[in-house]
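Structure representation:
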Amino acid sequence: MTITHHPSDVTLSAFASATLDEARGAVVAVHLSLCPQCRRAMRAFEHVAGRLLEDIAPEPLSAGAAERTLSRLDQPAAAAETAAAATTDPEVPAPLPGRALGPWRRIGLGVQWRPVQIHSDEGVRLFLLKAAPGTRLPRHRHTGTEWTCVIQGAFRHQHGRYGAGDFDEADETVEHSPVVEDGEACVCVVALQGNLQLESWLGRLIQPFIRL
């Protein structure tokens, strides 16, 4: 696997300092599970974050904090068993097992969408997106951010080719029209803030029927 597109240093730094919302953090975590280069970079960021923590004055724990932590350690391992069972689904990347996933739903010709239940304070939605080989997605832009990590297959658009492990970080300034390569379906994990804005006349015609 050759990975050529990575999160920005700003994004990796935010992940290391735990300041990303949970949905976007999950997409970065999927990329890190596939990318040795970014895992090495993360160790450097975490080292810097650790040094900064040493300079912060300690704060007293809230009342009952120790008891709450110890009670969690005594809980049954049901969550771990759920996570282990979820790994049997080859389309669920390693950092996501244990999260509730909805069913696949067709949202266009050759395109399916599967929501991942996750909390986000910034209105970011997390989902899996699967597109059949040769699928051409409509030209579009976004009203917010769109972070994508490819799990299998590959797609191309105006900014390059994205294969397994590649990370695509787009915002409202980016306009693109992805095309899935031939051979196998392309499966991605996506954190989307805001909405899609389809640019072509056909896209504007079908916009009311797409809820992404």
About this structure: Residues 75-88, 201-210 have pLDDT under 50 and may be disordered. Residues 1-212 form a domain with the Jelly Rolls fold (CATH 2.60.120.10). The helical segments are 9-16, 22-34, 36-54, 65-73, 78-86, 201-206. The CA atoms of residues 86 and 92 lie 7 Å apart.
